[in-house]
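Reposting from the mailing list since nobody answered there.

I have sequence plus structure tokens for a pair of proteins and want to know whether others read the tokens the same way I do. The first protein:
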Amino acid sequence: MPDNLTKAERPTPRSAFAEVAPEGFFERPGVVRLRDPGHRPKTLLRGRITAAWSAAAAGVLGVVPPEQPGVPAHSPVADILWLGPDEWLVLGTGPGSLAPALLRAGLAAAEVGDGLPDLELSGPRARDVLAGGTALDLHPSAFPVGWATRTRLGRIGVLPQRVEDGGDGPVFRLHVERPWAGYLWSWLADAALDHPSNDESVPR
């Protein structure tokens, strides 16, 4: 692809869920909803925590990356998820990638947005459906709002992130490597059929 294409001329990345969910949405009323939230800038940040490294990262991100498993960090420009003692996933809150700024600050960073798509799982049975495929403790006291940690769901590795509580239950973002995106969507949709609905209009 020519490097001189303007941003407006560049093709929109094809959704990782297009083959299994062309509309980007699935719902079993009273159980769960699945939604493709679309592209979001994501940067993989690596480094060894030192005073100088933390200062450089905070200068770009507005906050020092977290040092404890599960615990997130937030700033006006990014949400930062702990992946390991020397690895973080930076979720940009704006339209552009933060990787160039991190690289200019001398930090090891790579844009991974299209390679690590995510889907949104919500609904009154969202926690039950998710718990059916993972050993991760999803109780609110063990997995509060904002937290994220790597785990396995079915046959694949995922990064579940509890982003908020909706009007009818918790809301999760599930980050997954692109080759497994279709499997993740299908697994969750199939698992939803095994749970009784909270909606009285839907046969149990």
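The second protein, same order (residues first, tokens after):
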Amino acid sequence: MASFRILTHPEHGTRAVKIGWSWPAFFFGLFWALYKRMWLLAASLFGFIVLSSVFIPATQGGQLISNILFLGLNLTISLKGNLWYASLLETQGYQEQAQVSARNPDDALAVYANSQKASAADIRDHEQGGADSRDQDPWGDQRDERERKDGRGDRVERDEKDDDDNDDGGSGGKGGGNATGTFIG
């Protein structure tokens, strides 16, 4: 698993940038920089390629020097490229929100989105101050959320009210004295 920086922008959304080594930057340095819209880096790489082909002789020794320089350049871009990309995004108005571990950028964004949903739910629960006493059954457990949404909880309350309206001690009526509170009939 890799670590990713999560950067958000109010208008452009959220991006995940890997922390550390970048294989695409190693193999496709110039094209990687163009794809990431790192224009200054792309221009520098292009200039380096042109200058090295002009000033390094086309001999076997010159070819060795050229290969060593390009290897060093690719290693540097691979090690620092993601950091440079995150810095570029920050200059464009992105703000780092979190660091997450994931297999790829899409998974990192999903992990971040899920953590934001969980955080929002925690905040909402905290602001509500917990459960109301009317939402608890006689044993102290909270009613099931689905039960309240589909209306079964309302029927149970109506049935209990109907049982209370009977003068025969609650043994008659729709509920029939059912202690579990399920709807019968």
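Reply #1 (J.P.):
I read it the same way you do. The longest helix spans residues 60-91.
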